[in-house]
Amino acid sequence: MSEQFSVRVTVRGYETDTQGHVNQSVYINYAEHARWSLLQAAGITQTGLMGKGVGPVALETTIRYKRELLAGDEVDITCAFEWSDGRTFSVLQTISKADGTVAAELKGVGGLLDLKDRKLVANPQDYFKELSTDPSLFGL
Questions:
Q1: pTM, full prediction
Q2: Are β-strands 102-114 and 119-120 bridged in parallel, bridged antiparallel, or unpaired?
Q3: What residues contact residue 5 under an 8 Å CB cut-off, 6+ apart?
Q4: Is the Cβ–Cβ distance between 51 and 98 less than 8 Å?
Q5: How far is the C-alpha of 95 from the C-alpha of 106, rounded, in Å?
Q6: In 6, 16, 19, 71, which residue has its Cα 20 to 30 A from 86's Cα atom?
Q7: Would you give per-residue pLDDT tens digits along the chain (140 residues)?
């Protein structure tokens, strides 16, 4: 598994629901933001992925909610990749308040889609290694 990458965001008022806490769908947006931030930090761009004819796809996401988040909370979103021998990989993410209180844990299963054949590529880690300026961020 890779080391945990982290990005900080501030909860915005429009992301909250009628109970005053972050709407459930926003957790997915936070996780996506952290994953793309990790790709960017590792030197991988959408243009680079498209140039290789691939694009990341989410196949499954599980969220375990632990504590509520409120407007104005500063939160850190971690992101760590786990690689398999197949066509998929896992991404483990934690959303925590600035004081360390865990608000949610996410586990996603993803892959890289061949944009022409519309099938998952074998060994997606090979693409990440090739496109990345710092593959260590993915544990590679």
A1: 0.93
A2: antiparallel
A3: 34, 37, 38, 41, 78, 79, 80, 137
A4: no
A5: 8
A6: 6
A7: 666 899 999 999 999 999 999 999 999 999 999 999 999 999 999 999 999 999 999 999 999 999 999 999 999 999 999 999 999 999 999 999 999 999 999 999 999 999 999 999 999 999 999 999 999 999 99
Query: From CA 128, how far away is CA 135, in angstroms rounded?
Result: 7
Tell me the longest C-alpha to C-alpha distance in the chain: 46
CA distances from 15 to 10, 12, 29, 33, 105 (A): 10, 6, 10, 14, 18
d(CA 107, CA 98): 21
Dist CA 64 CA 94 (whole Å): 10
Token duo for residue 91: 């991404």
